[in-house]
Amino acid sequence: MGLVNFLAYLAIMMGIYGILSLSLNLQYGFTGLANFGQVAFFCLGAYTSTIIVLVFKIPFFFGLLGAMVVAGFFGYIISVPTANLREDYWAIATLAAAEVVRIFFLNEDWVVGGGPYQGGSFGIGGIPQPLRSLFSASTYPFFYLAIVLVCLFATYIVINAITRAPFGRVIKSIRTGDNLPQVLGKNVKRFRMKVMAIGGSFGGMAGCLWAHYHGFVSPNQFLPLETFIIWAMVIVGGKANNKGAILGAVIILIFYNSTRFLKDYLPIEEVTLASLRMVAIGILIVAAMLFMKEGLIKEKKITY
Question: Which of 72, 89, 78 is nearest to 34 (CA)?
């Protein structure tokens, strides 16, 4: 039963990170936005849903919607002053924005309405899981997996529709530079802001699903390293290809979770093993960029 539970956990994580990978792929793969702050949306979604459901006793569905709205709004806000920046400055600005979000939740210690939420560096526990009382401990992971897969499928359908629509043609032209879309009369800044908002909202969805599955959130779970892992998924799977983004999430998570068992066979400390795991993922990214520059699944060229 232990193996079955582990596989259910792994599948849930694949679904959640698949949503994150799809959202980053929309921003970077299709639009060319070097978003190094993807973890900010993940963090905001987790905390927003936690506050809505745990403190205000509002059902999970509204926590999910709230997470998407807040994360999407944050993506829109941070793109207002940065939308006209060059790619390298954009990366620095988004990375800084993500750290601002994490440090805010790390240092705030207020209590909402005398409720159970205190936050701060100790994190928040006791986050309720949707419809938990209807299932046993052995069957609930499969129910939650179904929720995650529905959200992943919805994310894929929406982003796929967006990138195949006229909106998708514009953002793909932005990826090659500002000159072409500007000549065609397109407001480049506005399109970038919309993409950041849409991608951010799906990142918030992933954060909500992650928080309610684990039942605990802490600012130290949303370090910049998380963004690095999501980038690895997009690069290895294939940028500007939604199926590739999901495949990348599957491969990276299989690799990331399977290597933890090496401590049972090799005389390596857990801290050292964790560091080596990230080094190995970095090597995997370099190999993909050298030998598979377009990732495992290449971008599908669509003729209009």
Answer: 89
Asked if residues 261 and 2 have their Cβ atoms less than 8 Å apart, the reply is: no
Closest to 200 (Cα-Cα) out of 16, 17, 40, 11: 40
Place of tokens 């529905």: 150
Whether the CB-CB separation of 178 and 188 falls below 8 Å is answered with yes
Its sign, for the CA torsion 159, 161, 165, 169, is positive
Paired residues of 124 in beta bridges = 217
pLDDT digits (tens, 9 = 90+) for 115-163: 555 677 888 888 999 999 999 988 999 999 999 999 999 999 999 999 9
Tokens 């980053």 locate to 24
Residue 119 and residue 218: Cα distance in Å, rounded? Answer: 8
- From CA 79, how far away is CA 77, in angstroms rounded? 5
The 10 Å Cβ neighbour count of residue 26 is: 29
Instruction: List beta partners, residue 297.
Output: none
Rounded distance between C-alpha atoms, residue 178 and residue 275, angstroms: 39
**Residue 40 CB-density burial (10 A; 0-12 exposed, 13-18 middle, 19+ buried):** buried
Q: How far apart are alpha carbons 123 and 17 in whole angstroms?
A: 21
Please give the helix or strand (H or E) that residue 217 lies within, else none: strand 216-217
Burial of residue 238 (CB within 10 Å: 0-12, 13-18, 19+) is: buried
Alpha-carbon torsion angle 77, 96, 49, 243, nearest 10? 90
Contacts of 13 (CB under 8 A, 6+ apart): 253, 257
Identify the H or E element spanning 125.
Answer: strand 124-125
Exposure class string for 247-283: b at 16+ Cβ within 10 A, else e: bbbbbbbeebeebeeeeeeeeeeeeeeeeebeeebee
Contact 209, 151 (CB under 8 A): yes
pTM over 0.90: yes
